[in-house]
Amino acid sequence: MKTLLLFLSSALLLSLSSPGMGLSFCSWFCLVPLLFGCSRIKAKKAALLGFVCGLCYYTYLIYWVVISLGTYGHLPWWLCGIALLLLSAYMALYTAVFCAAASTMKTMTPVWTLPFLWVALDFIRGRLFSGFPWQDLGYSQFKTPLVIQAADLGGHHFITFLIILANCLLFTVLVAGDKKAPWGYRKITFPVVTGFILIAATSIYSLNRYENILESLPLAPKYQITIIQGNIDQNQKWNPEKKREAIYKHINLSNDSLKEDKPDIVIWPETAMPFNPQTHPLFAELLSRTVFQHNYSLLAGAPYFEPGMNGPELYNSAVLVTRDGRESRYLKQHLVPFGEYIPFADILPLPGPLVESVGNFSTGTKAFPLTDGAARLGVLICFESIFPELARKETVNKANILVNITNDAWFGRSPASIQHMSMAVLRAVENRRSLARAANTGISCFIDPAGRISRPTPLFIDCFINGSVSMLDTTSFFTQKGHFFPVLCLIYSFFLLLWIKRSRQ
């Protein structure tokens, strides 16, 4: 019973450290009870209790799934509950593997083993079955710019690595000198000292890097952006009778913003235009009342049809119309499973996607920025912002501003909105790019290359925000090489586990 309480304590601390709860400092010691528990039991029991810990934590973290599927997907609540438990159980499997490995490695210091393993498991979860890297532990620090500056070295995975390392160091200090300690050492060893040195060195780097970025921002070219938060009810968004009303609301908010500032571009959220711009007469009307009348560029989300092998293909897109009438678009590359398409649709007898649209969305393949004068906009649609590789590719292709357009109405008033926004903060820091976030119901905001959030909007209000963002062209180490850090953790963990298995045999 005492051991179970240790694992449940870690589940509670993990939950408290997540965005929304606001106790991010808990992440720096959240796994210490779990490590104590793993040190006292065998691998099979550690895996079972680790699964229970993960199930409790992830059920809280992603309970918004019930809101999305039930309130807006119109599925029965009992089915929503099953879906939540299944997804939470899948994610808890990674915690179970980690705990089993932690129990197995009792003859080794956890400092230079477990941080690599945790990051490797996060990396696998972010890729397997199309990937669901929702709220890796590093994102808990999104409101602490001084802590997350090292993300420009190894991405948010490196921040996660440092958090797990700190947990292992604290655990090591607590058990040092205890003759009953089951781990393979009783004192502070050289690996532990090097762990403290890495934490100290990273802290110094983060402080210096933060100051350098802040000094460079005033010298960079500026781009004036207006973000529109239309606050369109999800249940009314695709109603044919409400389309004109929704468009007029966005138009009026855009033109009202001119009383405060003259933007270079106005950004509307994901599918703010709930129709195909190629054929719908409302598109020409809205352009005449915005872009051509007031001389600014417009970026807005809209469904888009393109000829395909088997007929028209539907995309979730972002359309840019510049002041001179030039039109370009970005097609979403990472779709939401069961939201925008059905995995294995040819063999699974399942209903269509939950998104109210003509049919399954197709997948875009290009990550080239949309150009508006000197601004090169790297667009991320909805939960594309949780995948580091997409923002990195946009930056490699010369994007000097990142833009995240999304519709977070699906989350209701759950913590998911702030969780989603927190991951965009790390995309800005990793690539050292300003990021503008336009969300239908919030949270809309600006994020500078140092990770500082400005003008965040409340949820479920219609409003606009104006901001001047810096266009940096420097390339971070993460953008060049640092994105391989989790891959190296995976390789290291594989050979480590292989060596342990052979040594036991």
Report on this structure.
- With 505 residues, this protein is of the alpha/beta class.
- The protein has two domains: 2-216 and 485-504, no CATH class; 220-343 and 353-474, Carbon-nitrogen hydrolase (Nitrilase/N-carbamoyl-D-aminoacid amidohydrolase, 4-Layer Sandwich).
- The protein has 16 helices and twelve strands.
- The strands form two sheets. It has a six-stranded mixed β-sheet with strand order 5-4-3-2-1-12, covered by helices on one side. A six-stranded mixed β-sheet has the order 6-7-8-9-10-11, with helices on one face.
- Helix 13 packs parallel to helix 14.
- The longest helix has 28 residues, at 77-104.
- The two termini are 32 Å apart.
Secondary structure elements and pairings:
Blueprint: H1 2-17, H2 32-40, H3 43-61, H4 64-72, H5 77-104, H6 114-125, H7 145-148, H8 151-175, H9 190-216, E1 222-229, H10 243-256, E2 265-267, H11 281-289, H12 291-294, E3 297-308, E4 311-321, E5 327-331, E6 370-372, E7 375-381, H13 388-396, E8 401-406, H14 416-431, E9 434-439, E10 445-447, E11 453-454, E12 463-470, H15 477-480, H16 485-504
Helix pairs in contact: 1-2, 1-3, 2-5, 2-8, 3-5, 4-5, 5-6, 6-8, 6-16, 8-9, 8-14, 13-14
